[in-house]
Every structure is written in C-alpha cells, then in structure tokens.
C-alpha cells in the first residue's frame, strides 16, 4: 500500500478506487496528489466533478460535449513534457458512459506509452446504464475490476466499527446508505468519518494471484512531512502513517468494546442468566445421582447401586447372564 500511495514505478499501473456517498475517495485522492507533488511527479486530473485544483495540478476538463478522442489528446498534451505522471479520473462512470472513452486506449496511453500511473474513481451508488444494442455486454464496472492492477474500496471508519461490534455479538451486519432500503436515505449518520478512511485493498500480482488486506489512512498532519525544498509545493514524507486496520487502537480495543457493551445493555430479556448468592448455595446443596459411587463410599468404581422393591420380579437366569 505504501508503494501505491507513493506512486512508485510499476507499483500499480491502474488503480481502481470504489467509493460511495457514505465514504468518498476525496481523502485518499488528496493524499495521492500530495505525495506525487512532493516527489515532483506531474499530476493530471481529468475532471468531471472537481472544480478546484492545486496550482501545480494540470486539469483536463472533461464535462460537456467533448468527444473521447479530444479528451485523450488533451491528456497526451498534459503529459508530453513530463518524465513521470499521475493521471486521475474523478468519475470513470462519466468517462465510459457519457464521453464514450475507451478505457483500454486510455490505459495504453498512460501506462504503456508514458510509463505512468492511472487512478480512476468509480462511484458504486451510480446506477449503470443499459446498452440496448448489446445487452449481453459486461457492465463497465466489471471491466474496470478485471483490468485494474489494484482495487481499493473506501469505507467509513465509524461504519466499520459498527460492523465489527455486530459481529462480536453474532448479529446481522448493519447496512448503510442505499443498502438500507429506506425511502429518502442516501447517506447514513457517521458517513465520511473525519478520523480517517478504511481502505480494503486487493493487489493483483503479475502471476495473477490476488492479495487482500485492509488498511486505515488517518488524516494527514503537517508534522508528517518535511519542509518543502525550493520549487516543490510539498515536502517529502517523514514516516509512513498508513497502517493495518487491526493495529488501530480504536478498532481493537476501547471504542469497539464500548459499542458492544452499549448494545448489550439495551437488550431486554425475559430471563436472567445470572445467579444470586442464595441460588448458588442451593445449587451446591443438590445431591447428584450416583454420588456415592463417585466418592467410592458404597460402590465399586462407577457401579450403579440398586435396591430391589417388592414389586420387582427376580429372574435367576438373567442374573447369571
């Protein structure tokens, strides 16, 4: 993950980022841009939604009636004089459905011709359009997942904590946003947690074998970077602060346990699983069956003791057997 964030050569030629209204990819994209500019990497943003950019970022405006060929030409022009570039598309849905840009041609241009990195964002809460001419064609998202060398899914930290609390108590996982199925709800409470963002990453090796891991990227601080040198807008990174999710104290200890206890206290039950002191004393005074045989006072080992009654029929032949 550190190599992907720092735009290392051949770390991930095409990174697909999946987000939704409950957790936008803006914090992750901001960190990618900051680290790329700190290493003097040319950053090109193909914008369908964004309107504000850092002065060092080159913007290719794609909204409107521009054709796919014109967008590719603008990207090529923005990369011509740079040794290494980072190309970010802020809406792959618009790129493929509205402007009809061939993602394969875009990937060949960025990764093959210019040996650079392509990052694309796909909003999962966008309803895919149906192609009437070729209804058997795969959806664009499936093609993006197949082509990408790294797939990162963004999730809200608060929602991940709530999901873990439910699992600890063997409850159904909570749903958020559109998955709730509630009319009028598109974004849940605690969406876009300000503490950081959870990244579920899948890395595709050259052999085709995938490797998955979940990370936590907290909000960057000024102390995380060195002072910028002359000519660069940002200083280099001092120490990596993206960590595995399991190593985050809030995920493994206090906050999750607090959520579990809070939900357990709200449960109303018709019976009590605990015992009072009087009930414990009564339980200890109960004599269990065959207790004498267990202590060895009236039996031999585990032999069952039985006293015949007047109504019992004694059969000598069965007793001999």
General description of the model:
- It is built from twelve helices and nine strands.
- By secondary structure, the protein is α/β, with parallel strands linked by helices.
- The chain has one domain: 3-Layer(aba) Sandwich (Rossmann fold).
- Helix 7 (157-168) packs across helix 9.
- It is elongated.
- The termini are far apart.
- The mean pLDDT is 81.
Note the quaternary state here: single chain
| Helix-strand sequence | HEHEEHEHHEHEHEEEHHHHH
So what's the CATH class? Alpha Beta
Tell me the fraction of residues in β-strands, as a range: 15-25%
- Mean pLDDT over the full residue set: 81
Q: Describe the strand arrangement of the main beta sheet, using strand numbers.
A: 3-2-4-5-1-6-7-8-9
Structural domain tally: 1
Number of strands: 9
Q: How helix-rich are the residues, as a percent range? A: 25-40%
Low-pLDDT runs of 5+ residues are: none
Number of alpha- plus pi-helical segments: 12
Major β-sheet, in short? 9 strands, mixed
Distance between the termini: 76 Å
State Rg: 32 Å
CATH fold type: Rossmann fold
Q: State the shape.
A: elongated
TL;DR of this structure?
This protein has helices spanning 2-5, 26-38, 68-79, 92-97, 103-113, 140-147, 157-168, 249-252, 254-265, 277-284, 291-295, 316-320, and strands at 14-19, 42-47, 58-61, 85-89, 117-123, 150-156, 196-204, 210-218, 242-244. By secondary structure, it is of the alpha/beta class.
